[in-house]
Amino acid sequence: MAERTTTTVNAALAGTIDIGGDLPVNRFGFGAMRITGEGIWGEPADREECKRVLRRAVELGINFIDTADSYGPEVSERLIAETLYPYPDELVIATKGGLIRPGPGQWTPDGRPDHLRAACEGSLRRLRVEQIDVYQFHRPDPNVPIEESIGALVQLKDEGKIRHIGLSNVTTEQAERAQKLTPIVSIQNRYSAFDRSSESVLDFCSLEGLAFLPWRPVEGGGVAGAAGVIAEIARRNHATPTQVALAWLLAHSPVMLPIPGTSKVAHLEENLGAVALDLAPAELAEIDKLAAQG
Fold it and tell me: Is the pLDDT of residue 5 over 50?
């Protein structure tokens, strides 16, 4: 299969989305979870290549980077600062707090206010900023009412340590409860052409004008080996299945802000090729049917 040339494609082709009314970003971001070790634990196998990925992302017009204190843990945030600080004026860095890491591949919710305060202040230090552009509550803690967790973030926002508050891994009902306490600017849930379990949350974001950040947008690379509809559409467009899946996301909703991640420059450039891919309405409809069946 011929691969689309992507080295000159710029993220601006995806259009823009205005987060919180004052943070305009190109509608194709970068998720910085993969610039860590196996199991999202420890240092990456090729640290210099990960730094090249970050620099290349900015060169190609990606001005929204999503990370979290739990990625590594702490590794992703440190590497971002080491590579990109002082940050370009237009770069928006979003991070998250609310998960602790007992070990590789292990994720435990911790929504206690004291933990969230410590997590936020740790992210401020590692990212070398005085205020975090978008701070997202990583996952509701079943042992802590969401009002207590969001209340802690509201206090941090009042202190000027957080500019905007976002949510991650929430239901519509949880988002509505959070909105009663403070304006919410974004929601990050798992979503892809193969997993539309958060469709109602995406609809909520559309109605409320919130950015929707789909995590695992290409199913951890699983789309690359996709057979059937995705592969056939990719063949017709001289593209890759990954590019098709990302192009579908961009076309599916104007509030969609994909954040595919990688630790390789070549993969970054392949992903970004999606912004130049103009799928026909009939092709988008084919993928809609596939997703609905999934």
Answer: no
